[in-house]
TrEMBL record:
UniProt record similarity statement: Belongs to the methylmalonyl-CoA epimerase family.
Domain VOC: 66-197
Record's catalysed reaction(s): (R)-methylmalonyl-CoA = (S)-methylmalonyl-CoA
Claim: Metal-binding is one of the keywords in the record: yes
Matches recorded under InterPro entries: Glyas_Bleomycin-R_OHBP_Dase (IPR029068), MeMalonyl-CoA_epimerase (IPR017515), MMCE/EMCE_epimerase (IPR051785), VOC_core (IPR037523)
Domain of life: Eukaryota
NCBIfam families, alphabetized: metmalonyl_epim (TIGR03081)
UniProt name for this protein: Methylmalonyl-CoA epimerase, mitochondrial
EC identifiers of the protein: 5.1.99.1
PROSITE patterns, A to Z: VOC (PS51819)
């Protein structure tokens, strides 16, 4: 113990006023933490190392403005909505049929983000196959707000190697704004929806989505 204390000046300093009683106390005293888990970088002499952060490319032609919603496909919309309302005390919307998208949606409003519950509508719903593979339901997609969905699509296809799905032209989503889906094979296996954040809701009809963005 004396040898250990002599070899670590910080511990020596602490040991004058603090007597560790077990191994965890010894670790906390040495690393300077008080319970939360941290990573200690190699060669950092015991100091907690900050993770390095790399920024996105400069001059991006569009910006992600945040998370719009997380969509969960469910086998029973009424039951799922009731679970979110009663178990989590969340406000839930009435079901909204969206025949053009092949889904009925219920929005669950949480303080910092919405959850969109999805159920197939019609024979060719894109959610049907997903539910066949995941009969109990599951996370179907993540929707990001962007400031320019048109510029985003162009940049993703031409510069980032990320393909859009369908015709590549925006359609109108459940929040009444232009949306586009990206191929999950290009985005780490997660289906991502882009939504035009600043589009005026109610002002767009299906055929007007693309021109509304110009
Ligand atoms: C109202 C609106 C809104 O939010 O505003 C909505 O929600 S509309 C929500 C519904 N609309 C959409 O989802 C539109 C975009 N979705 C699509 O175009 C399609 O569903 C695809 C994502 C391309 C999947 O195609 P398809 O339905 O034919 O399924 P599939 O079973 O043949 O799957 C083909 C490959 O995609 C994968 N795959 C299927 N669904 C996936 C999902 N949700 N997330 C991640 N990967 C997925 C499968 O595992 C498979 O991979 P492997 O080949 O490796 O086995």
């Amino acid at each position: 113990m004396e040898k250990l204390i002599r070899s670590f000046p910080r511990l020596l300093q602490l040991s004058k006023s603090y007597r560790p009683t077990n191994r965890m106390d010894l670790f906390k005293a040495f690393s300077g933490i008080s319970g939360q888990s941290v990573g200690i970088g190699r060669g950092s002499g015991g100091r907690v190392s900050e993770p390095s952060i790399r920024s996105g490319p400069e001059n991006m032609p569009y910006n992600v403005k945040g998370l719009a919603h997380i969509a969960i496909a469910v086998p029973d919309l009424t039951q799922a909505a009731e679970t979110y309302r009663t178990a989590f005390g969340a406000q839930v919307s009435d079901p909204k049929p969206m025949p053009d998208q092949g889904v009925t949606v219920v929005f669950v409003h949480l303080p910092n983000v919405n959850i969109e519950l999805l159920h197939p509508l019609g024979d060719t719903s894109p959610v049907s196959k997903f539910l066949q593979k995941n009969p109990k339901g599951g996370i179907h997609h993540v929707c990001l707000n962007v400031d320019n969905v048109h510029a985003a699509a162009e940049y993703l296809i031409e510069e980032a190697g990320v393909k859009t799905l369908g015709s590549g032209l925006p359609t109108i989503g459940a929040e009444g704004k232009p949306i586009l889906f990206l191929n999950p094979k290009d985005t780490a296996g997660v289906l991502i929806e882009l939504q035009q954040a600043n589009a005026s809701v109610h002002s767009c009809r299906e055929g007007e989505a693309a021109s509304a963005l110009k």
